[in-house]
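Let's do one together. I've listed all components of the complex below, 509 residues spread over two lines.
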Amino acid sequence: MKPLLERLAAGETLVSDGATGTMLLQADLEAGACPESICLDRPAVLANLALRYLDAGAEILHTNTFGASPIKLSMHGLAHQAERINATAVAALRQAVGDRAYISGSCGPCGKLLKPYGDVEPDDVYESFCKQAKYLIDSGVDAICVETMTDLMEAKLAVRAVKETAPRLPVMATMTFDPTPRGFFTIMGVDVPTAAAGLRDAGADVLGSNCGNGIGNMVKIASAFRGQTDLPLIIQSNAGLPRTEAGKLIYDETPEFMAARVRQLLDLRVSIIGGCCGTTPEHIRAIRNAVDAGVAA
Amino acid sequence: MELLKQIAEGVVGGDEKQVAQLTGQAIEQGTPPKRILDEGLIAGMNVVGRRFKEHEIFLPDVLLAARAMYAGMDLLKPLLVRDGIPSQGKVVLGTIQGDLHDIGKNLVAIMLKGAGFEIIDLGNDVSPQRFVQTAKDQGAKVIGMSALLTTTMAKMRDVVALLEQQKLAGKIRTIVGGASVSEAFAREIGADAHGFDAASAVERVKILFGEN
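Okay, and this is what the predicted structure of the assembly comes out as:
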């Protein structure tokens, strides 16, 4: 495979996968259970999902390791399994897809607030991300995606942890913003210009946003990022905010609805387009088609 | 009074040291503790709550303000107890069994404390039995439950059912909230109230106590 960053530098647009967590919840994950425990129990479930996304046209697949940093795993009493969880998550995907897709190690927030707002030492968070980065890198990921961050300090610690461990490994870094009357902010009060500058300074190769409040808002967020940086952008949107119906989670944005906004993302030169909570292989297939049509147009 | 206004400003600015120092000063001057609480600390947290709701400030500002408020509260508490000033009421709070997401619940706890309520915070992953037993043991009239995950919401129904089973419905009221919990869901499971966000949760809890 050609290195990921070479393709992005050449102006290519890549499609990444859709949701892992909400897909697992549909069938394989018990309510309230640790999503990463599936790496230990049933890696075949992860391999099957990866193949479905590959078949739908995804070229970047994220590992089921969003909550697999030791600090986060400790909330489920699984910190001692961190290495095995990260390693099996990568191996499950690599065995399934080989070199047909880039495998990106997902690193989500540690789940605690850092000092001075909370009680976790930034040094401990850094060390926790260093461990997860090492496990993922030793297992052979092609990139790492630091995602769903709301605290810029934590996001930067995670990016630096990866760059410290493997300086040349591509790092994507995305934060989650909410619309407010004054523009987009994370719940910790980080706006897009601050995020763009901070993530770039920390060493991220690709910047952007994931999760959030639907594809319409994501187009605006992408535009705000594009106004700040010429680095490659990544956008992985939720299929809207969920609502509940008889205790079941419903995401309203259809594959067609999301795909119809891909043109706008291409116009903003977004390099990687994928999905987050509520998206399915069908969403990714529709996005794939829209990217192919848009690039050809 | 100027000093109380400064205490409120200290809370809004998240200045822990200033609030502790000014609260101590107000106590020394003989200001009634209840006034320091209402016109200083609570007044400050009301401003914080409104600004957070309006997206003028964000979570870090609220957390720092809360810490400043607690610094004053620690000094006032023994005096309020001595004066026999009752709290606004006791509320048992927690995230429901299986749910480890507690930022929303913590915010509600901060805002309720800021409004003068006594909070018994059971933390994360709380079983229905523990919610109900704690409320009974502590004489709390309201149970507040939070769920971020839709997968854990259903457990909230068990708390409501347990209260009914123990003939406590109406005596101990329930309020539910969290990212996945809607007003419709609250009605569906028979909860007494739904808090859309931390600020509205406080308003609803006040109403629940008013109804008691």
